[in-house]
From TrEMBL:
The lineage of its organism: Bacteria, Thermotogati, Deinococcota, Deinococci, Thermales. SUPFAM superfamilies: alpha/beta-Hydrolases (SSF53474), DPP6 N-terminal domain-like (SSF82171). It comes from Meiothermus hypogaeus. The gene is dpp5. It is an enzyme of class 3 (hydrolase). It comes from the Bacteria. InterPro entries: 6-blade_b-propeller_TolB-like (IPR011042), AB_hydrolase_fold (IPR029058), Peptidase_S9_cat (IPR001375). Pfam families: Peptidase_S9. This is Dipeptidyl-peptidase 5. Residues 409-616 form the Peptidase S9 prolyl oligopeptidase catalytic domain.
Length: 616
């Protein structure tokens, strides 16, 4: 098993109902043109006992209504909306915006389409100056943001017209149950946008807008109910950056009722996903609301009545990546520890795109560390072949409000295949273990460090691992903790790989696409208010203590954890005489390890393995 396995993999995403109640989805594989770099190729497919491709050209975000299957495809580098007639023939392009579209929703009767677009806005040429008077000015995977807010347009009778134009972006849109208006979300001011705060509105087809609720926190996952109500996910940042979402129901009378609370959506880490899947609330044929929630290392489907009765609706051995009601049947895209997304129905695997491609992989062994404070830290260990004792990598997830669990992490299996054990866990700050557990509350590098090192000591005592050959690695928050641990415990680790990390909160505040709001929500400080907190929580303040040979991995177009973070850490370690190497990747952003160009993903994995082989 080598890193080149990535070229052979296939991915399923964007599951939705297709004609005849059959599952419709996006099938992605990797093309390797003779004289060009490898690239992902996404096409539409349906399942009726076997897979049938519906398109040969690029197609994403499918939706079926009436006589057409709708999808998006890039034209002149921007996405446009197409529709494919069920009667046969070529797909028809139905939008021509210079800025393309950023989302669409077809009305219940299929006669109208709501479009999220910036219209005919054209950004300055790459060599021209840009002028901004708001924030953010950039976003990861998108680059510099356009100066034109995202608008809501209405397409009908082959003509598009603007329906909602605001000073802030329209964020999300959905038709109401009868199709005579739309719900949408947007921030009410620049300050609300800076703080991840939205409001919910309703707009009629005549353009009349009513504000419904909001102004205290994020709102998303809008879903109309047949009785004229609305369900959605929201909270008010009551517990800072670790606040869990709540599922609400707003009746036709305007009264709002709490239905459930939890770590909604799938926050389990995986590097085996290309594309998206429906995880937000959907009303099923039985009238219950279905939504994905992360719980104890697995993302499961939750069924909730409008009266607030809650129960799991999927087995814990399946990690739900997406779901759709096709006819009256529920289909899911499901992962587990050893498989990427597969098409499943009622616990049965219908289609595995990687059957015969992925080798038989071992399921990691669960390990639970009982902390002195009384809580349990769930984790896993992957052991290579042979008796051991094995060199081991403590691998730390990103977020921090995500989790490891029942989803395939291909890179960890590759480390194991190369002879390295991998230990990984969900310290405090991770999702899926309740509100008190997920809230770090300005204790970065404190309670999470205790859990990580306590778990490491636990598995070193329980498994055939070599305590003299331990490495630490991770990306994003995991990169921050790699820097932090090697600085705080200079003799503990024989090697480190810090990937898309943070080392300096003071510079992160202004350089990251989420810097001001993320920094304040996590640490409760700003550069001009309690700057000592930001410095004390910066690994850079302790960099003089680092002795661990460190590989620094960073992408040049990473706007989430900007490359100055990696540059600074590399430069300081090099100047101090610590063995270090900088693996710097052009044209990629924060998602390199999960969605970067395939050859660059492979080069990154090989750089990790070379470093571990050299120092472990």
């Amino acid at each position: 098993m080598t890193t080149d396995l990535l070229y052979q993999l296939r991915f399923l995403s964007d599951l939705t109902e297709g004609p005849g109640g059959k599952p419709l989805f996006v099938y992605t594989d990797i093309e390797r043109p003779e004289k060009e770099p490898p690239r992902y190729r996404s096409r539409l497919a349906m399942w009726d006992g076997e897979m049938h491709l519906l398109t040969q050209g690029e197609a994403k975000s499918p939706f079926w209504r009436g006589r057409y299957i709708y999808f998006t495809r890039k034209v002149d580098k921007v996405p446009q909306l197409f529709r494919l007639p069920l009667s046969g023939g070529e797909a028809e392009q139905i939008t021509q915006f210079k800025a393309g579209i950023e989302g669409y929703k077809v009305s219940p009767d299929g006669s109208r389409i709501a479009l999220l677009t910036r219209g005919d806005y054209e950004p300055p040429k790459p060599d021209e100056p840009r002028i901004y008077e708001t924030w953010p000015v950039k976003f990861d995977a998108r680059g510099l943001l356009p100066g034109q807010p995202r608008e809501l347009w209405l397409w009908e009778n082959a003509t598009a017209r603007p329906l909602v134009k605001l000073a802030q972006d329209v964020e999300e849109v959905v038709w109401n149950a009868v199709g005579n208006g739309l719900y949408f979300t947007a921030s009410g001011s620049p300050q609300e946008r800076w703080g991840w705060i939205q409001r919910a509105y309703h707009v009629g087809l005549d353009g009349h807008i009513d504000e419904l609720f909001g102004g205290v926190g994020p709102i998303g996952g809008l879903e109309p109910t047949p009785d004229g109500g609305l369900v959605y996910l929201a909270h008010a940042w009551e517990r800072g950056g670790g606040t869990e979402s709540r599922l609400y129901y707003r009746g036709l009378d305007g009264n709002i009722r709490l239905l459930a609370q939890g770590s909604f959506l799938n926050s389990v880490n995986s590097d085996m996903r290309i594309g998206a899947g429906v995880q937000t609330p959907r009303v099923g044929p039985d009238g219950r609301v279905y939504v994905v929630v992360t719980h104890q290392g697995s993302a499961r489907l939750l069924a909730v009545t409008l009266g607030g009765e809650v129960r799991f609706f999927s087995p814990e051995e399946f990690n739900i990546l997406g779901f759709a009601f096709c006819g009256n049947d529920l289909y899911t895209l499901s992962e587990n520890f050893t498989h990427g997304a597969r098409l499943t129905r009622r616990g049965e695997v219908l289609f595995d795109p990687n059957a015969g491609v992925l080798p038989e992989l071992p399921t990691p062994q669960e390990a639970r560390y009982k902390a002195p404070e009384g809580h349990s830290v769930q984790g896993w260990v992957l052991l290579p072949e042979g008796k051991g004792p094995h060199p081991v990598v403590l691998y730390i997830h990103g977020g921090p409000h995500t989790a490891f669990g029942n989803a395939l992490m291909l890179q960890l299996q590759l480390f194991r295949a190369a002879g390295f054990a991998v230990a990984y866990c969900n310290p405090r700050g991770s999702t899926g273990y309740g509100q008190d557990y997920v809230e770090l509350g300005q204790r970065w590098g404190d309670i999470d460090e205790q859990d990580l090192l306590g778990f490491l000591d636990h598995v070193l005592a329980q498994f055939p691992l070599d305590a003299r050959r331990v490495a630490v690695a991770g990306g994003s928050y995991g990169g921050y903790m790699t820097n932090w641990l090697t600085a705080r415990h200079p003799a503990r680790f024989k090697a480190a790989v810090t990937d898309r990390s943070i080392c300096n909160w003071l510079s992160f505040y202004g350089a990251s696409d989420i810097g001001p709001r993320f920094t304040y929500l996590q640490l409760g400080a700003r550069p001009w208010e309690r700057p000592e907190v930001l410095w004390q929580k910066s690994p850079l303040s302790l960099a003089h203590q680092v002795q661990t040979p460190t590989l620094v991995v960073h992408s040049e177009q990473d706007h989430r954890c900007p490359i100055d973070q990696g540059e600074t850490w590399y430069t300081v370690l090099l100047q101090k005489g610590v063995p270090t190497r900088f693996f710097r990747v052009p044209e990629e952003g924060h998602e390199l390890s999960r969605a970067g160009r395939p050859d660059r993903r492979i080069a990154r994995l090989n750089a990790y393995l070379e470093w571990f082989k050299a120092y472990l």
